[in-house]
Amino acid sequence: MSRLYLRDPTLSSVLNSSQSEDQKEAYFLQEQTELNLLLIGTKEGMVHVRIFGCFTCCILDMCEYLGISCSVEALRVSEDLRRIYVVTKDENSLVQIVTVNSSIFKTHAKELFAVAMKYVKLMDLITYLRNTIASITETWESFLLEIDHKLSKYAKKVPEGGITADFLDLLIFGICASELQEFLMHDLTKKGLEKFGQTIEMSYTNIQKLLLKNINKYGQNVTFQLAELRGMGRFDCKYEIVGLSDEKIAQAIQSCGAFLIKAAEIQQIINNSVINYKAFFRWLYGAILTLMDENVPGEIHRMTQQDVAYITEFLQNFDRVGGKDGGGFVMEQLGQYLADEPLSAEPTNEDPDSWEAFLEENACLESHSAILKRAAGTSLVQQFKNVALKVASIFTTPRTRLQGYFRMMERETLDIYQCDPTVTLRVTSVNASGDEVIFAFADQSPHEESCVLLVQFGRCTDGVSGVRVNFSPRRVIDLQFYSSAILSVLLEDVSSSTALLLQMTVATCGLKNLKGVGPLTVSAPSANQDDVPVAKDIKMPAAALGVSGSRRVGAILADNRRKVKLFEMEADEEDDEDVSGVLMTDTSLPKDVDMPKETTSAD
């Protein structure tokens, strides 16, 4: 429903370049049509599972599960999203694969997609409102800060209450104190007041546009999105598993309503301030001309009783709002709404027929959850922060509830091998046919023969298979899956220190079924690099490998990190995805790319 009737925030000229980039990213997220996941592993052994890369639905502690300090080295999720495979390395350098049951992504994909999309929408709107408030603050400061600063300097020169007294003496009796005359003639000046008069209306106009077109419009969008989210939470047969709290959503709606009321309150203050400002500055301009012995225009000289009332009302705020040091001055009430602190001058409403007075007389209505209430004493910034906090709190319960649906599968926790702690762990993985996942590890332990360990997970527990492929006397430098059927291995000839790029098919490696749980001990080699038909002598010491089957290219990084060799790697024309055939032809002439000397690349 919201997609049909509520427009998304548009890129506005008031947003800077970084904010515009954030807005483009939000549009990209909102265009998603299928559930997708981002898995993040940390060196502290934590696994973060995020939908669309932003909505955290689960945080797994592998250290707690394994009972030992470990780091997450690699992650892979099956194509049907039912399982997450976590490669860990503990403090004893034991490499393991832990299988996590994540079938909730399969059984409740639509529900999780809908809730995550609401999260994306709400966070996008909150970000947009935050940027709009920042733009309002900048607009106000750019036009009012200079004159406000000048008045603050003047306020420090006179005793408490002296500002109002001096201006009232000038207004009523035409008597100008020496401090006030110096301020008007030297600090404020005629030219400065003229310039400020031209910009004051523009500043208020811009602020009102931002309030009406951005704050009100998209603040109402937040309320609508929250109402839809509350409806989803009440649909127990579908969304009970997510754990949406109706109470927290209601609190967020109340907070957003108070935010909209606060924005309307600012608009009323602006309307009153514009009238007071015009009267005050027109009179002050005439006073400066009089002090300079210049002719005062007739339209400025004429002043009605209503104008005097406007000026007097404006002057009443001079000593109501003070700085923290007691001698400061804030020019008018708008600024306090844009500060992250309680209001210093609360607007008064003496109308007996107002909505607030009606609610005070009817406590039963005032306490009703459907009645939006005004947040007294808070600024716009404070109320917005409350909205952001309430919206974020809605999704804490789903995160806790969903956490319980991710279970470690003990029968599929495999000890792979004891790696060398001084060598960077080399591991790669790929989703094979069906829901199978294949891992490949480069065993570079100095006390073992250099080899590649292959582990394949199938649909069931009995479908775990593995093999150890020996490459001695050559040493495995790096490895990466070229496709789901081909593994690219970068080898080093120990005698000549030159590298060899090897393309080997997984099907010919002779994967053997692993019974039970324990170290991977299958050691019968299924292939030797000399028996593989596709191999390329790199003719240089190498450090890292990068391949892409979809682009049919490969890249080798030299050992000195200053040179890259690119290869065009073409598959067999008959069937480039055939597992049993010759998958890779010999590479074409390599293209040497010399990198700048100052450029370095990590492994």
From TrEMBL:
Keyword rRNA processing: no
GO BP: anaphase-promoting complex-dependent catabolic process; cell division; protein K11-linked ubiquitination
Entry coiled-coil feature ranges: none
Protein name: Anaphase-promoting complex subunit 4
Keyword Ribonucleoprotein among UniProt keywords: no
Taxonomy of the source species: Eukaryota, Metazoa, Ecdysozoa, Arthropoda, Hexapoda
Domain Anaphase-promoting complex subunit 4 long: 97-294
Region (Disordered): 571-603
InterPro entries linked to this entry: APC4 (IPR024789), APC4_long_dom (IPR024790)
GO cellular component: anaphase-promoting complex; nuclear periphery
Alphabetic keyword roster: Cell cycle, Cell division, Mitosis, Ubl conjugation pathway
Pfam family, one: ANAPC4
